[in-house]
Write a structure and sequence with these properties.
Chain A is of the alpha/beta class. Chain A is built from seven helices and 20 strands. In chain A, a hairpin with a 4-residue loop joins strand 3 and strand 4. Classes of the chains: A alpha/beta, B mainly alpha. At the A-B interface, strand 15 of A face helix 18 of B.
Chain lengths: 335, 575
C-alpha cells in the first residue's frame, strides 16, 4: 500500500509538491479550502518578468495533479500525531491517516482597508493590485474608466512598522512595473506614476522589465511614500507624497490609484498549525528549521513546509521549494 | 534625679529642629524669589481673594491633614498615611495644649516650671519632665499607638506591597532608606522611653528625631513642610516655567515618592519602563540629574494619568513640558508656506469643521462628519478640505513654542475671517490646543462628541437603536484633559449598549500612539496598546468606539474587534 502524504493547501506549492510525490510513487492527498485548485496564481492574468500568461502555468499544474486525490471546499479541522504518523479529521467528517504533513498554505493579501490613509473602501477610484489583475483578466471593472493619470503605491502593508509588517513582500516591485506597463498598453495615452521606496528588481529578467518600463512605456518612478490620499470635488484622487530625490513634498491629482498590497501569513491555518506545534517567525509567517539546509523542515518531525507560508515568495521560488519538499518527504519516509 | 527644665538628651532634637526650620525659611524665600513678577503678584492676590483663600484652607486641611485623596485611591494606604501623619500632628498639638495642665513630678520645686512655649522641647519629652493628667495621658497613648499601627502597615507594604493593593513600589537610595528607618523607630523608642524611663531610649528617641529632621530636606519627607506651600501656589493658578525653579521647585519637594503613579503609568506594563514614571522623574529632578530628567521628559506620553491619580496633585506633565522647553535644539522652521493659505471670506457657514492632520489620515471620520452635518441641516464649512495648517500641538509638545505660534496665528486668522461662530474638531489633540492656547473670543470650540451629542438632544439628528455592544475608550486629551466623559457615552447609549471597560474615565489607559513621546520604540508602544486593548475587551464588546483618530489608528492594528470613531458609528446609524 502506498504511503499517504497530507498536503494542506492546493495552490502552486501544494500542487507541485503533490506532482513530484506522485511521481515518486507515494500517495499525496491535497486538502483545499476553496472551491478550486490553483490558489492566488489562478486569479492572475500574466506573470512577470516576461508577461507570460498565468493560465498556461496553472493549466499545466492542474493537468499534473489530475490523478491525485483532492478534497475541495474542505478544511482540516483536527490533527493528531499517532505512532504511525498523523490522523487528520476533515470538515466533511472524513479522516486521513498520513505518514507526513506538508503545510502549503500560502499567504493572504494584505487588507488595504487597514491603511485607512490610502482611502481604499472609502474612495471609489482606489483599487488594489489584485483587483487590477482581475481587470486585466476579465476586462471588467467599472471603476477603471479611461483613466488619464494613474498612480501605483508600492509597499502597502510591507516595510511599514505602523501596520506591524516590517518585512519586504518581495514580489510587489516587479508586479507594480509589470502592471504599470500593462495598463499603459490598455490606455496608451495615460500617464503612469509609481511611488516606491526602493525598486527591488532582483531576479532574472526583472531589471530588463524595469528598463522596458522606462524606455517603451514611459512609466515615471517617484522615490517616496504616499502619505495621504483624499478625494476632490470631482471624485478624483488627490495624493500627497514626498519626492525624496528632490527632497520636496508633492501633491498630485489622479484618476486611479493602485495599491500594491503585500503578502501576509494565511491565518486560517493558525489552529492546525498550533496543534502541530509549529511557531511563527519574527515576520509572523511559519518558522522553518533553518533558512539554508532546513528550509522545508520544521521543529516537528514529519511536518514540512513549502511556499509562501514561511515568507513572501515569487512563483519560481515557490515551485523550487515545492520540489525540494518532495525530496525531503521522500528521504524522511525512507529513513 | 530629673531636672525640671533640661537634660542633655534634648540637644539632638533641638539641633535638628533648628536646622530644619532654618532650611524651610530659606527654601520658602527661594521659591517665592524665583517666581516671575507676574506670578508673584498673582500669588499674593490669591492669598486674599476669598474664593482661593477658602480653597486653600479646604485643601490644606483635607490633603495635608486628612489625606482625603489617598483614602479615595486606596483606603489601606489612606489609613497608613493618616495614622502616621495625623497621629503625629495630634501628638504635637495635644502636647502643646497639655503644657498648661502638666504637674511637676513629686518632690520637685514648682518654681521655673514652664507654662509657656519657652522650652519648646517640653511637649516632645514631657513624660521625662512632668506628669500628665489622665485624660491627656489616654489621648497621647491613643495617638502614639495609632502611629505605630500605621508604621506596621508601612513595614508590611515594604516587604510585600501586593497585600495593600500596590503592585510596584519605589526603590530608594541610602538617604531615603535611612530616614525611613529613623521614622519607623522614633515612635517605638518614644513608647519604650515613656513606659520604662530608661535613659538610653530617651537618647535614642532624640537622636532619631535629629536624624529625621537633619535628613528631611534631602529626602522625600520634605513633602511634609512643602505641600502646604504647593497648595497655595497651585490655587494661585501658576504654571511651571522652568523645570527646577520657583513653582516647579515647590512641586519637586512636594512629591512624596509614594509611587502610586508607577502602577498607573501605561508604560509600566513593561517593568523595564517603570523607571520612566513621574515618581522617578521628580526624584531625578530633585537630585539635579539633568540628563535622566530630560530623557524621562522626552519618553513620557503626556497622557496625564499620573496627574489624575497623584494624591498631592503634582503637575508632572507640565513640569516635563518645561523640561523639554529648557533644552534648545537647532531647527530652522520655514513658515513661508503659510502665506499660501487664504480663507473663503464668502462662506456663510455657522459651523467651521477643522479635521486636522490625523483626521486627514482617517478619511472615514471626515466622511462621517460630512454626513452628520448634512443630515442635521447645519450650515458648515470644512476648513482644511484642501490641506490646512497644523494646529501647533506637535510643535508645542516638542517644546517649540515660538514655531508653534506662527501656525497658530495663521489658523486664528483663518477662523476669525470665516465668520463662523462655532469650531468643531474631531481630534482631541487639536481640541486641547485650540481650547488652551488659541485666542478665539466669541467662537465656541467643540469636540465632535459634544457637537453630535447636542445635535441628537436637539432632535436635529435621529439615530437608530441597535443591539450592538460597544465599549468606549476615553482619549487622554479629551477625558483627563477636559473631563468630556458623559457626552460620548450618551451618544453611544442612544445607538447601542455601552459596556464598561476595566479602567474608565480618568483611569483610562493611553492607546500607546501618543504624540507626546519621542523616545518610546514601536515595540514598547505595542505593549502599551495591547494592554489597553485587553482592558477595553474586559466585557467582550462587539466594537471599540473612540473619539480620537490617533487612538483609532493605534487600536486598529491590535484589536480583535472592529474599532470605529464615534462619528462613524453615528453616521452609519442615521435615520
Amino acid at each position: 500500500m502506498k504511503e499517504n502524504i497530507l498536503i494542506i493547501g492546493g495552490g502552486a506549492a501544494g500542487m507541485e509538491a503533490a506532482t513530484q510525490l506522485h511521481k515518486m510513487g507515494l500517495n499525496p492527498i491535497i486538502v483545499e479550502k476553496s472551491e478550486a485548485l490553483g490558489g492566488h496564481i489562478a486569479q492572475w492574468d500574466r506573470l512577470f518578468p516576461a508577461f507570460h500568461p498565468a493560465k498556461d502555468v496553472v493549466e499545466q499544474m492542474l493537468d499534473n495533479v489530475k490523478d491525485i486525490k483532492t478534497y475541495l471546499n474542505t478544511e482540516v479541522t483536527d490533527i493528531q500525531r499517532n505512532n504511525d504518523g498523523f490522523h487528520a479529521v476533515l470538515s466533511n467528517n472524513e479522516t486521513i491517516d498520513a505518514k507526513a504533513v506538508i503545510l502549503a498554505t500560502g499567504f493572504d493579501v494584505f487588507k488595504a482597508e487597514r491603511k485607512q490613509e490610502y482611502g481604499y473602501g472609502i474612495y471609489n477610484n482606489v483599487i488594489t493590485s489584485v483587483e487590477l489583475e482581475e481587470f486585466f483578466r476579465t476586462g471588467k471593472d467599472e471603476r477603471i474608466n479611461h483613466p488619464k493619470k494613474i498612480g501605483f503605491v508600492h509597499c502597502v502593508g510591507a516595510r511599514d512598522v505602523k501596520v506591524c509588517n516590517t518585512y519586504c513582500s518581495k514580489v510587489c516591485c516587479t508586479t507594480a512595473l509589470k502592471q504599470a506597463c500593462e495598463i499603459k498598453e490598455v490606455f496608451p495615452d495615460a500617464e503612469v506614476y509609481t511611488f516606491y521606496m526602493d525598486l527591488r528588481m532582483f531576479g532574472l529578467g526583472y531589471e530588463d522589465l524595469y528598463l522596458k518600463s522606462q524606455k517603451d512605456f514611459d512609466v515615471k518612478c517617484v522615490r517616496g511614500r504616499v502619505c495621504e490620499v483624499s478625494e476632490d470635488m470631482d471624485g478624483k484622487i488627490v495624493i500627497k507624497a514626498e519626492d525624496t530625490l528632490f527632497g520636496k513634498p508633492l501633491k498630485m491629482t489622479l484618476d486611479l490609484l493602485v495599491l500594491m498590497c503585500s503578502m501576509e501569513k494565511n491565518k486560517s491555518i493558525d489552529a492546525i498549525q498550533q496543534k502541530l506545534g509549529i511557531a511563527n517567525n519574527s515576520d509572523g509567517f511559519m518558522q522553518n528549521k533553518d533558512m539554508y539546509l532546513g528550509m522545508n523542515d520544521t521543529a516537528q518531525e514529519g511536518v514540512f513546509v513549502a511556499g509562501a507560508c514561511t515568507a513572501p515568495k515569487s512563483l519560481p521560488d515557490t515551485i523550487g521549494e515545492a520540489r525540494s519538499v518532495a525530496v525531503e518527504v521522500y528521504n524522511y519516509l525512507n529513513k | 534625679m530629673n531636672s525640671q527644665i533640661f537634660h542633655p538628651f534634648v540637644l539632638p532634637f533641638v539641633l535638628g529642629m533648628a536646622f530644619v526650620l532654618t532650611y524651610c525659611v530659606v527654601g520658602l524665600l527661594r521659591v517665592i524669589g524665583q517666581l516671575s513678577k507676574d506670578d508673584r503678584k498673582k500669588f499674593w492676590r490669591s492669598l486674599v481673594t476669598p474664593k482661593t483663600a477658602w480653597a486653600n484652607i479646604r485643601d490644606i486641611v483635607g490633603d495635608c491633614l486628612f489625606h482625603v485623596k489617598i483614602w479615595k485611591r486606596n483606603p489601606v494606604l489612606g489609613y497608613m498615611h493618616t495614622a502616621i501623619a495625623f497621629g503625629w500632628f495630634m501628638i504635637i498639638v495635644i502636647g502643646h495644649i497639655m503644657l498648661f495642665t502638666l504637674k511637676p513630678l513629686e518632690g520637685v520645686d514648682v518654681e521655673g516650671f514652664p507654662r509657656m512655649f519657652t522650652n519648646f522641647y517640653y511637649p516632645i519629652f514631657f513624660k521625662y519632665f512632668a506628669e500628665e493628667t489622665p485624660v491627656f495621658a489616654f489621648l497621647m497613648d491613643f495617638f502614639l499607638l495609632m502611629i505605630i499601627s500605621g508604621i506596621l502597615i508601612a513595614v508590611v507594604k515594604k516587604i510585600h506591597s501586593k497585600i495593600v493593593g500596590v503592585k510596584r513600589i519605589m526603590h530608594f537610595g541610602f538617604a531615603d532608606n535611612m530616614i525611613r528607618f529613623a521614622l519607623w523607630t522614633i515612635f517605638p523608642f518614644r513608647l519604650i522611653a515613656e513606659k520604662t524611663n530608661i535613659m538610653a531610649f530617651w537618647w535614642l528617641y532624640s537622636i532619631d528625631l535629629f536624624v529625621f529632621m537633619f535628613m528631611l530636606p534631602f529626602t522625600r519627607y520634605m513633602h511634609i513642610p512643602t505641600e502646604a506651600l504647593f497648595i497655595l501656589l497651585r490655587h494661585a493658578g501658576l504654571k511651571p516655567r522652568e523645570p527646577r525653579k520657583g513653582y516647579a521647585l515647590a512641586q519637586i519637594y512636594s512629591c512624596p515618592s509614594c509611587g502610586l503613579c508607577i502602577d498607573a503609568c501605561p508604560m509600566s506594563v513593561n517593568d523595564k519602563n517603570s523607571g520612566n514614571t513621574s515618581a522617578y522623574f521628580m526624584k531625578r529632578l530633585r537630585n539635579g540629574d539633568k540628563e535622566e530628567s530630560q530623557r524621562i521628559a522626552e519618553t513620557c506620553m503626556q497622557c496625564g494619568k499620573c496627574v489624575a491619580v497623584c494624591p498631592v496633585s503634582i503637575e508632572s506633565c507640565d513640569i516635563k513640558m518645561s523640561q523639554r522647553e529648557a533644552v534648545p535644539y537647532a531647527i530652522n522652521s520655514d513658515h513661508s508656506y503659510l502665506d499660501a493659505y487664504e480663507s473663503n471670506e464668502t462662506s456663510n457657514a455657522s459651523v467651521l469643521y477643522f479635521a486636522g492632520c490625523m483626521t486627514q489620515l482617517t478619511p472615514k471620520i471626515m466622511r462621517a462628519m460630512k454626513q452628520i452635518m448634512e443630515a442635521a441641516g447645519e450650515k458648515y464649512e470644512f476648513m482644511d478640505k484642501d490641506g490646512g495648517v497644523c494646529c501647533g500641538r506637535p510643535m508645542l509638545l516638542s517644546g517649540k513654542t515660538v514655531e508653534a505660534q506662527a501656525m497658530m496665528a495663521k489658523n486664528t486668522e483663518l477662523i476669525k475671517k470665516s465668520g463662523a461662530k462655532r469650531l468643531v474638531l474631531s481630534c482631541p489633540i487639536c481640541y486641547k490646543v485650540f481650547k488652551e492656547e488659541y485666542q478665539l473670543e466669541g467662537i465656541e470650540i467643540l469636540h465632535h462628541t459634544q457637537y453630535i451629542d447636542e445635535l441628537i438632544k436637539q432632535g436635529k439628528l435621529k439615530v437608530d437603536k441597535n443591539g450592538t455592544n460597544y465599549v468606549y475608550h476615553d482619549p487622554c486629551e479629551l477625558g483627563r484633559a477636559f473631563g468630556v466623559y458623559d457626552e460620548p457615552r450618551e451618544v453611544i447609549e442612544s445607538i447601542g449598549n455601552l459596556r464598561k471597560a476595566k479602567s474608565e474615565k480618568e483611569l483610562s489607559i493611553c492607546c500607546g500612539g501618543s504624540l507626546g513621546s519621542f523616545k518610546l520604540t514601536q515595540q514598547e508602544r505595542d505593549e502599551i496598546t495591547a494592554n489597553s486593548v485587553n482592558d477595553l475587551m474586559y466585557n467582550n464588546p462587539d466594537e471599540i468606539v473612540t473619539a480620537c483618530p490617533l487612538c483609532l489608528k493605534t487600536f486598529a492594528r491590535k484589536a480583535p474587534v472592529a474599532v470605529k470613531d464615534i462619528a462613524e458609528v453615528v453616521a452609519t446609524n442615521l435615520i
